[in-house]
Design brief:
- The protein has about 290 residues and is α/β, with parallel strands linked by helices.
- It contains ten helices and eleven strands.
- Strand 9 and strand 10 form a beta hairpin.
- The longest helix has 13 residues.
- The two termini are about 35 Å apart.
- This is Glycine N-methyltransferase.
């Protein structure tokens, strides 16, 4: 169901046709770096996990399919990987392009490929700028996939996009994809207070709303409020809303397995730790190895 039929999921000015770019009004993009916090501290949360698995499996080329402002891509570049970064939001991509320009004298940044691409047409989009290329790894982290809502109430678009992720992987390649603990959010009506990704030093309030349609949770809306006025009197109180499809762990696991025709090795982690080590994780991370 299109969320905007029953719930205002977007700020004014965002296009209503095609895949929704929830960053199109620029509000979230402008303050995203504040929400992320110190980038070095952010990457410490999962650098060892991600790069350790990539190196263990001999991965050298990585496609970041939700690169946003480019922070994860830059982490991988600095770790020596060859990275191609794509996103559907030009408002987010401009920050990645700016970062590439500022460090263009470094070879790895000069060779960094950044393009606009759509998950629904990902193999065709990649073919346009890198013909015949498949990747050792694909990453879709930071709860990015949940931005894709269920327009038809049967998850057909989500299933197609997961298959597209699998298609651009080499045999033996890895897909890293995550989602928030929506099971907990739905049961408690609140977002877990801890986060493995964001280290904002400013007060952040996240109001959680769950939209239930015919007895089924269809959408989770998070209203973010970041207040930096105590540190900077000229700063604004930043407010924006982002909406997500509430993937349950069991259902998402089945959907991922189906995207790889049940032939991929599937490991699940909780906040980048073994699943049984975290009683109530903020995020689940799925690692698929293509046969």
């Amino acid at each position: 169901m299109s969320s905007d039929k029953v719930f205002h999921s977007r700020s004014q000015g965002i296009p209503s046709e095609g895949v929704k770019d929830q960053y199109a009004d620029g509000k979230a993009a402008r303050v995203w770096k504040k929400y992320i916090g110190d980038s070095n501290q952010r990457t410490k949360n999962y650098r060892d996990f991600l790069t350790g698995l990539l190196r263990r499996h001999g991965c050298k080329t990585v496609l970041d399919v939700a690169c946003g402002t480019g922070i994860d891509s830059m982490m991988l570049l600095d770790e020596g990987f060859k990275v191609v970064s794509v996103d559907a939001s030009d408002k987010m991509l401009k920050h990645a392009l700016k970062a590439r320009w500022e460090r263009r004298r470094e070879q790895r940044y000069d060779e960094w490929v950044i393009e606009e691409a759509n998950w629904q047409t990902l193999p065709q989009d990649v073919e346009q700028f890198m013909p015949g290329v498949q990747f050792d790894a694909v990453i879709c982290l930071g709860n990015s996939f949940a931005h894709l809502l269920d327009e038809y109430e049967d998850q057909r678009t989500q299933k197609m996009c997961l298959r597209n992720f699998a298609q651009v992987l080499k045999p033996g390649g890895l897909l890293f994809i995550d989602h928030r603990n929506y099971d907990s959010m739905i049961n408690r009506g609140a977002t877990p207070g801890h986060s493995i990704y964001y280290n904002c030093k400013y007060p952040v309030d996240i109001k959680t709303s769950v939209l239930v349609v015919r007895g089924k949770p269809e959408l989770v809306a998070l209203d973010y409020c970041i207040d930096a006025r105590d540190e900077d009197p000229n700063a604004e109180r930043s407010e924006f809303r982002l909406c997500y499809y509430p993937h349950g762990l069991d259902a998402f696991t089945r959907m991922l397995d189906a995207a790889f025709d049940g032939r991929a090795q599937h490991n699940i982690y909780a906040d980048f730790q073994p699943l049984d080590k975290v009683p109530e994780p903020a995020y689940y991370i799925h690692v698929m190895q293509k046969k």
